[in-house]
Structures are given as C-alpha cells and as structure tokens.
Amino acid sequence: MTFSPDDSAPSSTLSLRAAIERGGFYPSLVHHTVTEALDGREPTHQIVHVDTHFDMEEVHRHITVLALAENVIVVAHLDDHDLEADDAATAGRTDTVARISTEVVPVSRNRSVILSEVHRQPEHFRPDRGLAEVTLNMNWTGGARFETAPVHCGDPDCMADHGDDGTVIPEDIVLRIAATAEGDTAVEEARSFVRALRRACVRHAR
Questions:
Q1: pLDDT for residue 166 is more than 70
Q2: Are β-strands 72-84 and 94-106 bridged in parallel, bridged antiparallel, or unpaired?
Q3: Among 140, 202, 131, residue whose Cα is nearest residue 174
Q4: 3-state DSSP call for residue 36?
Q5: Distance between CA 50 and CA 65 in Å, rounded?
Q6: What is the pLDDT of residues 31-53, one digit of tens each?
Q7: Cα 131 from Cα 118, distance rounded (Å)
C-alpha cells in the first residue's frame, strides 16, 4: 500500500528541524541522526520531548523524538554522561559522550496508541481550551509492564490475605508532556501526532 496524504490530518505546525532546535539538546546531532533514519522520507508530524531529572548532585537530560513519515515511525532517544579520562595525558579531564539510538517502526506493526488527557476544570470544559498534559503510550513489539496490588474484600476489619491482582500494560514507549513544563504548543503537537498516527494505522492496517 502506498502512502497518500490525508487532508484531514494537516502537517505539524513546526518542521522537524525547528522542533528539535526548540528542544535545545544537541540539536545538530539529533537532527542528523533522525534524518538518516528517515532515509529520504519527509516527516509530517513529530514529538520532541526533553526530560530532565536529578541524581544526587548530577543533572541528567534525555531527548526522545518520534517522527511520522509515510508508513513508518522513527523513534530516537539520546542521553549523555560524563566519561572520566583514564590515560596520563588527559588525567583529571572529564569528557561528555552522547549515546543515541534509533528504531524505524512500520506503522502496520503498531499494536496500540493510547492517549491520556488531563483537563483543567472539567466542569468548564470547552473544546478549544488547552490541556494540562497528555501521556502517549505506544506498543509495537509486545513489550509490557505488569503492575500488582493486594486484593481487598471490602471488609475493613478483614485481616486475611486475598492475594494480589495485576494489570498488564502494553508499552514500548511512554511520554508525558505537561503544559506547565513544555508549553501548550508541545501538548498540541503531541495531540496532532496521535491523530495523524491513528489515521496512518488504519490506512496501513494488514
């Protein structure tokens, strides 16, 4: 099946390069690597997500890029870390190294696309109002996490062990994008990406 543009799914408001540069985390390296993985395809929608977390006194950042182009999704992830030099000439110097991985996923392999939305003041809902945050969950390899919790019988005085119950949650990638951290534009870009991906999944379903 060949790809044909869908007028009901307009392209992302930002180009892939502009979105990566806005992320600001090794933009030249990230754009070069994602473009190579696209292999000549033109992306129509993307999500660029930069995550920062703190480990003791160190700050760690990661960037994840999802790019939808024709019948594939390119998934790229980059993180960096300090590498202590171990030779005499550079002893005491710390270099930074970056590791970036890419995967090209055929749209037809995608098993599920789950979008969770958080609405502010739902009692005053309006379709044109921005969301507080979105969480995207995608699955294409069958990978999953298993969450367990004790089973309760409903009797507040019961001390018996009723075992555990569990939920299998399929996931290959989970991204949480909050307006307070990344802005309303990033949230809307994520929603646009999901709408386009869902349409592509239907078009390329086997």
A1: no
A2: antiparallel
A3: 140
A4: helix
A5: 9
A6: 999 999 999 999 999 999 998 76
A7: 6
DSSP designation for 141: S
Stated pTM of the model: 0.76
Q: Which two tokens stand for residue 83?
A: 């590498």
Residue that has been written with the tokens 């594939």 in this structure: 72
Identity of the amino acid at 128? D
Q: Which residues does 2 contact at the CB level (< 8 Å), separation at least 6?
A: none
* Tokens representing residue 142 in the block: 């069958």
The token pair at 65 is 């890029």
* 49, two tokens: 């997500």
Per DSSP, what are the bridge partners of residue 113? 138
Q: Which two tokens stand for residue 95?
A: 């270099």
The CA-based dihedral angle spanning residues 157, 160, 163, 166, taken in that order and rounded to the nearest 10 degrees = 0
With a CB cutoff of 8 Å and minimum separation 6, the contacts of 39 are: 104
Instruction: For the chain, give the mean pLDDT.
Output: 82
* Spatial distance between the Cα atoms of 33 and 10, rounded to a whole number of angstroms: 25
